[in-house]
Amino acid sequence: MKKQEFKKGEIIIYQNPQGFEIQVKLEQDSVWLNSHLIAKLFNVNRPAIVKHINNIYKAGELDKKLTCSVLEQVAADEKIRKMNLYNLDMIISVGYRVNSKQATQFRIWATKILKEHLVKGYTLNDKRLLQFQIHLKELQEAISFLQEKSKYKLLAGQEQEILYLLSNYSKTLTLLEQYDKEKLSLIKKTKGKFILKYDETKKIIDEIKKELIAKKEASELFGQENNNKFKGILGNIYQTFGNKELYSSLEEKAAHLLYFGIKDHPFVDGNKRISSFLFIYFLDRNNYLYKYSGEKKINDNALTSLALLIAISNPDEKNKLIKIITNLLIT
């Protein structure tokens, strides 16, 4: 069987039953810790660890050249300092000399888990595996949702735009490897500075109405509010609980603004057009409408399709749509 090759600097997490956690560095087919971390690992003082290490070398139990690696790093005073890192053989040897409960727990873990990782090439981290599975399931559900809705009569002629949404959303598949390596946070919490205020927003809607009436593309019913419903939607978007915002990120606020503005029918006429415009306006005022390339994160045709998807969706599909919108905004 071909020996598993490990990537330099890969991190394994050790956690004992009491909840103590430490990151173990995997390099050169072993794990490496400095004396400070070994002391913390076994719940003893560092001088005791240094003493044990020196005694192990003096007794010739381990070869220093094979078990000790020198790491150079820049200290706070900007001078280069050298730090000794010790491999798994030394860590376990010290652990047998240290008389502590944590040392015993680590020996058990190292024997059963770390050796399995080094020999077979993997360690199952239940928490990360579960997160991976949950995200993959959500992604599959979103793709299935878009494929199903694309067959709806109201969306006839929107096939290209649905494909655009599907393509952009499925790009997150390429992020799974980064996610698995803990290089990416899939739930982005962008903070927006611009706040949509009810009175100012009503003025904007009135201006849109004037332009559309002049073009004979709207009637006097356009933008006429139903029982302060739109005011309630803005209140919900900025709602707080225990001094914390219910929708804390810019992406969440924008997604819920679009969804509620269409689904809750706050206006007698023009719900999709008004909500789509305010969605774009809100992102633009927060400098979040465009990608770094200069391209809109969600182009006009795709936004039309999103609005129709929201309009024909069932209430229990809300979370799927919110996830689709927020993911499109962070790609």
List the helices and strands in order: EEEHHHEEHHHHHHHEEHHHH
Whole-angstrom Rg: 29 Å
- What CATH calls the topology of the largest domain is Fic-like fold
Mean pLDDT: 76
The CATH architecture name of the largest domain reads: Orthogonal Bundle
Described by strand count, sense and barrel closure, the largest sheet is:
5 strands, antiparallel
CATH class of the largest domain: Mainly Alpha
Number of domains: 2
Q: Numbering strands along the chain, what is their spatial order in the largest sheet?
A: 1-2-3-5-4
Helix tally equals 14
Which blocks of ≥5 consecutive residues have pLDDT under 50? 1-13, 172-187
Structural class: alpha+beta
Overview of this protein structure:
By secondary structure, this protein is α+β, with helices and mostly antiparallel strands. It folds into 2 domains: 10-123; 128-330, Orthogonal Bundle (Fic-like fold), CATH 1.10.3290. It contains 14 helices and 7 strands. It has helices at 35-42, 46-58, 64-67, 88-97, 101-120, 126-149, 159-170, 176-180, 198-214, 229-237, 250-263, 271-285, 300-312, 318-330; strands spanning 10-15, 21-27, 30-34, 68-74, 80-86, 240-241, 244-245. It has a 5-stranded antiparallel beta sheet with strand order 1-2-3-5-4. Strands 6-7 form a two-stranded antiparallel sheet. A hairpin with a 5-residue loop joins β1 (10-15) and β2. α6 (126-149) packs across α14 (318-330) and α11 packs antiparallel against α12 (271-285). It is elongated, with a radius of gyration of 29 Å.
